[in-house]
Each structure stands twice: as structure tokens, then as C-alpha cells.
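Recap for those who missed Tuesday's class. We walked through two folding examples back to back. For each one, the amino acid string is listed first and its predicted C-alpha cells come directly after. Nothing is annotated here on purpose, so try labeling regions yourself before you check the end of the notes.
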Amino acid sequence: MASITPPPGWGAAPQPAGSGAWNTQPPQPDVWVYAGFWWRVWAFLIDAVILSTAECILGLFFGPKINVDWEELPIPDASSQTVDVVNIATTSLPHASPVSVLIPHLHAGSEWHTFGIVLSLLPMVYCVMFEASAFRATPGKRLFGMEVVTLEGKQISHLRALLRFVIKAFLSFPLLYIGVLMVAFTQRKQGLHDMMAGTLVLRHTRPAQIAPFSPHT
């Protein structure tokens, strides 16, 4: 009776490397390159320029109208009398001197409060929408090839992106920037907001592969 050679993995003798499709090189582990402190500083500056430009454009088209009201404040002269600006402008006396001033008052109306709230929320909407999208980063980060991902390397949710922004805005920056400076000293280049939100900032869209090599004997 002829012997039957079982397929690989069923007790057959191991075949030499490269002798068949069953002996392809096993996939190498992924290597993640974390975004360092200065890379993130440059990305922050780019995002700040973009946000400032957007705020200026919004202010031109949707900003509240500012009205200026002038109030005259008369000042008593040596004779304890007051002279208003109209009398000073029309008088022909050479010895006449200004004895009143005009005080400007700026009025933006109730629309200013609404516009101020919109401007304060713009950075939050900007960061959350971009980082939680398939883009995985703000334009500044993407310009330098960075991504904001979960600890497993997946796309973050809107809730996680919001949590990350709130911690960064109210803890990492206000507390003497300590939460931001932590990026330069932590093992995975995480700031306080990254640690608390469970996120990483990578400098590669796709993790690089380790190239296999044969060590010299």
C-alpha cells in the first residue's frame, strides 16, 4: 500500500525554507513611530494659523456690527462755565481753548455674545471632527504625516476625540503646559490628554515593517 504524504502541519517533515508556498515568510510585527514633541509643536502652529484665518473670515462675513457713540464730556473753564464742542468750532475768538472732550462708546449689540461663543467652540469642532474622521488628524498633523489613534491603532470615536480636546484645553495647557511637555519625556510620546483619553499620535499612516535579515555567524 502506497504511503500518503500528509499536508504541512499534519505531521509531515518540515520542508526547507523557500521550497513551497506553505513556507512563506511569516508576517513581521508592526513598528509604530511615535510623533515627538517638536513634530507636534509644528503641527500645532499650522493648525493655529488655519484657525486664525477661519476666525478672521467668519468675523468679516458674520461678525456683529459695531456702532460708535460719541459722548461729550464738558470741562469747566476758569470762569466755571462749560463750553461744548460746537461752540468751540464756531467761535472766532483767538483765545478760545478746548474745554470739553469726546468719549467714544462702542456698542456691538447682543449678537456679539453669540459670535463669541461660536469662535470659542471653533477649535473644539475643528479638532474633534478631523481627528475622529477617516482623516485621523487635523490638517496640521496630517501635513507632517501624523495620526491620532487608539492604543490599538484604530480610528478614535467622536466621544474620545472630545474627551482628548477637553483635557488638553483645561488641564494640559493651563497647568504651566506640563501636560504638553510630557510628550518629550514619556515612552510613547503621550501628553496628559493622550494618557487620559487612551490615544497615541503616530508619525506614519501605516506602521513600517521590519526587514528580515540573516545574522552573520
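Example two. Treat it independently of the first, because the proteins are unrelated.
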Amino acid sequence: MPRRVLVTRPEAESRELAEALRRRGIEPVTAPMLAIEPTGATVGDAGRYRAAVVTSGNGADGLAAATTYRAMPVFAVGEATAERLRGQGFTAIEAAGGTGLALVELILDKVRPASGPLLWVSGDEVRVDMAEELGRHGYEVERVIAYRAVAAADLPAAARCALAEGTADGVLFFSPRTAERFASLVAGAGLTKRAAAMTAHCLSAAVAEAARSLPWAAIRIARRPTRDDLLATLDDTTASDPD
């Protein structure tokens, strides 16, 4: 029987990730912990902004939905988000190293505060407040909330079954919020002890911290906060965090 891994990303991201897992010979079990709901926000005069700032793949989709202007420069939090922007027709894109603070550093290096306002397209909940961080350095940042992330109310049936029967080897976590929600739903379903035979694969130390309420057999943390590095933890046992 092939290894089975639960995928906790929102549905759209889960489909792409599932294909990447199948190419590795791993059977994905989709278990979205968040549902993405677009707000329908629009940007009337995108050309007046010096650049756009996008802190997630869903933010990239939100920017594309909010304006038809594709010539604007865009600063993306990481390469996966940059690729999503390219797929939406944007061409002047610079990608940071995968974290909000890395994105701040990139903008500080590339853009002068006096060169014009920045458009930040985000979800309703964020870990790094780009307006606050960049505002400290004199930047004018206008935020547009393009989507809301709604937490799952229950464990999906396939995930619940995999946990109850002990057929899942691990779980992929991309954010603290999804890790926290998963842990809460597992506890609510009376399946906490099942985690003791599984590995939590976490995008960052912050994600791992959020997952620690379950008694995992192991926690593995990506070397860098990228999808490819997270997938590498499925093979690289040296990425483990034993504590």
C-alpha cells in the first residue's frame, strides 16, 4: 500500500499539491482546513500605484480579479506566488524568500518610499502586517482585502477515515492557522492519539509550533518556507525537529 499523506491546503491549492504527491508515489488525502471566499474587491486606478504587494497565492488571484492592469510591478512573497501571478498575466514580478519579513526587506531594497503608494492585496487575516512594517520606513501602503479564509467546521470524511483506521502516514501544513484548526478538529473527533503514528510536515518553525498540541511521532520542518522544501521533508529525515 502506498504512503498516504493528508493535505490541509484550501481546495484549489490541494489539487496541484496532490499531483505533486502522486508523482512521488504518495497517495494524497485532501483535507482542506480553510475555504477561500473572494470578497469581490476591485481596484479602480491600479496605474497610480508604484507597485503591488502580494503575500499569498490567493492574494495573487485576488489582484488579478481586482484589476485588468497587468503592467504594474508586483512584489510576491515567494516563487510559488510569483508563478501564480505569471499565470494570471503579470510580467514585472520580483519574488522574496517566502516570508512576509523577507518581502519587506526586498521592497526596502528595491523601492524608495517617496516613489508612490503601494497596493497590498491580502486576505482578511495575516501574520505580517505589511502596512505596519513598511509604514515604519515611510511607505504609504493601501490594503485591499480580496478574500476571506473560512475555517472548516469538521474533518472531511476521507481524512477522518484515514485517521481512524491508521492509514495516514503524515500531514502537510503550510500555515499556523491550518495546523491549529486541524489539531482542534482532530481533538474534537476524539482522534488525538492517532497522531502518535504520524509525521507533521511543516513549512516553518511557526507552523510546527502551532501543530505541537498533537502527539506526533515526528515533526519535520522545511529548510526554507517553500513548497518544494516542504515536500522534501517527505524524504529528508534530517529535516526533523525532535523537540
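Answers for example two:
The first strand starts at residue 4 and ends at 7.
DSSP finds nine helices and eleven strands in the chain.
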